[in-house]
Structure formats: C-alpha cells, structure tokens
C-alpha cells in the first residue's frame, strides 16, 4: 500500500523546548495567569516596539477587549475590511456596535485607503485595518484619512511583520495578535494586545479579569487575605494560562528564525512560480516586511482551462492542501442577511473570495515538499 503524504496548508512547529517549558508552571502549581504570562508579555512588548502587552485567550477576545475598553457600544460604528476572518467583524457586533465594511486593494488584500473616506461618519469610533496574511495594511495613508479616529490593528497574522521599519503592533492605538496554530507562533489558542497607551492598558487589564480592581497575583501575595477586589466594570475572563505562556515564551524566541525561513521559501516560490500565466503571486510593496503567515495567490480563470476550485481539488489529489485566502464578510449569511448586502457591493473582496488560493508554506515543510508544490502547479494548464 502506498501512502500519499499530505502537505498541510499550515502546521505549527514545536519541539523539546516547549515540552520542557511546561514543567515550571506544572511543578509550581500556578497554572493560570501568573509569572509566565508576565514574562511572555514583557518580551512580546519589547519585540514589537511597545510598552505594554496583555495576553488573552485569543485574538478575537483581544480585539473585543480593545473595543470594550474604548467603550464602543450601540449606535457606534467601527470600520473593518470586507475581506478578513469573520472575527474582525464579529467583535464589533459583540459590543452592540455596527461594523462598516470597506473594500480591499486587490493586490495586497488589505483595506483600500482610497475607499475609506466615504465610509467615515460622525459615528465612526474606530477603524480596524487588518494586516492580512502577515502583510501590514497601508497604515500611514489610513492614518491620514482617519485623522483623530483611533486605529486598531488586527495583527492576528503579523507577529514580527514590519511597515516602513516599524513593527506591526506599534502602528495604531492598540493591536491584537493571534497564537492560533494557523499563525506563525502558537500557544494552542491565545492572543495578545499591544499598546503604548498606559491608561488604555490599565483598563484592558481590569476588563480581562472580570473587571477586578486588583490582580489575582496581588491578592494572593498580599498581606490582607480578607481583601476581595472591587468590581466596578463589567469585565470578562480573557486570561491566558501560564501553561500557554510558557509555550509562547519559547515560540517567541523562535519567531525570528521561523520568519527568516518563511521569507526564504516565499522568495523561492516567487522565483519558481513567476512564469505560470494563470497564477497571480502575492505583492509586497516597497517598505514592507511580510511575515508570510500564508502565501496567498490568485487564480486568473481567464488564463487557464480550470476553475480555482478545480485546481484546488486537483492539488488535493496530489497531496497538496490549499485554501481560499479567507472570506468576504459580506457574503457570509449573518452579514449578508443582517445588512442586506450584495456580492457586487465589495468587488475586491468578492474577487478575493472567489479567486484567492493559499498554497502550503510553513516551518515543517521540507525542500522536497516545496519542490512538489511547484512541480504540481507547473503541471496545471
Ligand atoms: C486568525 C485571525 C483572527 C482570529 O484569531 P483567534 O486567535 O483565532 O481568535 C482574527 N483576525 C484575523 C485576520 C485572523 O487571521
């Protein structure tokens, strides 16, 4: 029996170091947010050029925490790109506010600054540019149009990405990262908020822990055992565990190596695949350092006899996993029906939804895997 090896679209790389790192919290008995989380946060902040980082249970809860701390609620509008993971828009609904979609630039898959101005209203309380697949959004142009409206980076895919020499996570009022296994570094599930704004950080810190006025650590180590926190805010439990943070600390030290390797293979793909007429390769504008959370191409169906979906099915038969880049929010039932949206309302997002195709690129792939992907793509006509 021959066994076809499947080249996964993405796979996390963990090893002996992550395994060993779990011993400290397990032996200490302190498993929830504690010293491992603090150390992880501090190092993450340092690496992303900000003063403050707060670990959370996911990027979704990180985004919600930011919007909640900004007191965004019913009657408010928050602008999000029309092509992104559904969580970017969902968090706006969690707050009772209205997500306002803006179309994307078809080359970068990111929010198109020239489409932004017409969507801004007196109710706009925040704009959430997404650094999709690890390529930063055009933050300077977005900022010029946004004026005083806070920019919240959805940096789920962008740990270690740079924009004009500055780190993702330091480009707006606050940012949210993801450590889901599909991203470049992982803690299983997990997220991180970054900000340079101390009072916002303080408020998010409180909201992350049920709205408590003092932390669990302060309470347990303090001299007054009778003291319970005050709860003056409606908070959540969005705390990361020390087990996850112990793994995250190891992963974070591997980030630069992971990204260096991803950049080498992305460049190799760009060279090897550039002559395939139907395959539109990802764009990296000058001044951007892509982290290649995903390598997302587009299929030009005018230049090939097969549809994108047929190509994806054919690759699957050869053991190569592919995925659409992500989805157009306005085509999802929840949003389509709630706001009566039509596919042609956001043509860039609609095209990206129909024609994008991520091919495998991750830190567990071998040279032979990359070569197999390239030769199978070249064989398609
Ligand atoms: C993955 C992702 C999220 C959600 O991250 P979780 O950690 O799974 O909550 C949000 N936005 C974008 C753009 C993502 O890619």
Q: What does the main sheet amount to?
A: 4 strands, mixed
Q: Determine the N-to-C terminus distance.
A: 30 Å
Beta-strand share of residues? 5-15%
List low-pLDDT spans.
none
Distinct helical segment count:
13
Strand count: 13
Structural class: alpha/beta
Q: How much helix, percentage-wise, in residues?
A: 25-40%
Number of domains: 2
Shape: globular
CATH architecture of the largest domain: 3-Layer(aba) Sandwich
- Give every kind of bound small molecule, once each: pyridoxal-5'-phosphate
On the 0 to 100 scale, the average pLDDT is 96
H-E order = HHHEHEHEEHEEEEEHHHEEEHHHEH
Q: What is the CATH C-level name of the largest domain?
A: Alpha Beta
Output the CATH topology of the largest domain. Answer: Aspartate Aminotransferase, domain 2
Radius of gyration: 21 Å
Strand order of the largest sheet: 1-9-8-5
CATH homologous superfamily caption of the largest domain? Type I PLP-dependent aspartate aminotransferase-like (Major domain)
Task: Describe how the helices and strands are arranged.
Layout: H1 16-21, H2 23-28, H3 35-47, E1 52-56, H4 59-69, E2 77-81, H5 86-94, E3 98-102, E4 124-127, H6 139-146, E5 152-154, E6 162-163, E7 166-167, E8 174-178, E9 191-195, H7 198-208, H8 216-221, H9 242-273, E10 279-280, E11 288-289, E12 295-299, H10 308-317, H11 333-339, H12 347-355, E13 356-359, H13 367-378
Parallel strand pairs: 2-3, 2-4, 5-8
Antiparallel strand pairs: 1-9, 6-7, 6-11, 8-9, 10-12, 12-13
The chain binds pyridoxal-5'-phosphate (PLP).
């Amino acid at each position: 029996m021959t066994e076809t090896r499947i080249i996964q679209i993405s796979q996390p790389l963990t090893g002996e170091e992550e395994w060993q790192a779990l011993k400290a919290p397990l032996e200490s008995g302190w498993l929830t947010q504690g010293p491992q989380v603090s150390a992880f946060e501090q190092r993450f902040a340092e690496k992303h050029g900000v003063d403050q980082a707060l670990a959370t249970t996911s990027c979704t809860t990180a985004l919600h925490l930011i919007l909640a701390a900004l007191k965004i609620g019913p009657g408010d509008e928050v602008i999000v790109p029309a092509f992104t993971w559904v969580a970017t828009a969902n968090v706006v609904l969690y707050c009772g506010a209205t997500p306002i979609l803006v179309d994307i630039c078809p080359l970068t898959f990111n929010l198109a600054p020239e489409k932004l101005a017409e969507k801004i209203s007196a109710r706009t309380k925040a704009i959430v540019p997404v650094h999709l697949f690890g390529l930063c959004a055009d933050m300077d142009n977005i900022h010029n149009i946004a004026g005083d409206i806070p920019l919240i980076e959805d940096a789920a895919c962008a740990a270690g990405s740079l924009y004009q020499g500055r780190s993702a996570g330091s480009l707006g009022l606050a940012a949210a990262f993801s450590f889901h296994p599909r991203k470049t570094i992982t803690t299983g599930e997990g997220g991180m908020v970054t900000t340079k704004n101390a009072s916002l950080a303080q408020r998010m810190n409180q909201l992350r822990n049920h709205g408590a006025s003092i932390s669990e650590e302060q309470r347990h180590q303090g001299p007054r055992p009778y003291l319970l926190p005050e709860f003056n805010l409606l908070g959540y439990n969005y705390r990361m565990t020390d087990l996850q943070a112990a793994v995250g600390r190891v992963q974070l030290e591997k980030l630069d190596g992971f990204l260096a390797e991803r950049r080498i293979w992305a460049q190799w793909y760009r060279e090897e695949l550039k002559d395939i007429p139907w395959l539109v390769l990802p764009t990296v504008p000058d001044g951007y350092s892509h982290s290649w959370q995903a390598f997302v191409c587009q299929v030009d169906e005018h230049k090939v006899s097969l549809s994108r979906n047929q190509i994806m099915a054919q690759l699957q038969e050869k053991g190569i996993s592919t995925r659409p880049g992500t989805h157009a929010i306005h085509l999802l039932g929840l949003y389509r029906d709630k706001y009566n949206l039509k596919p042609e309302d956001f043509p860039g997002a609609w095209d990206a939804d129909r024609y994008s195709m991520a091919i495998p690129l991750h830190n567990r792939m071998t040279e032979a895997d990359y070569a197999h992907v390239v030769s199978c793509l070249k064989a398609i006509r």
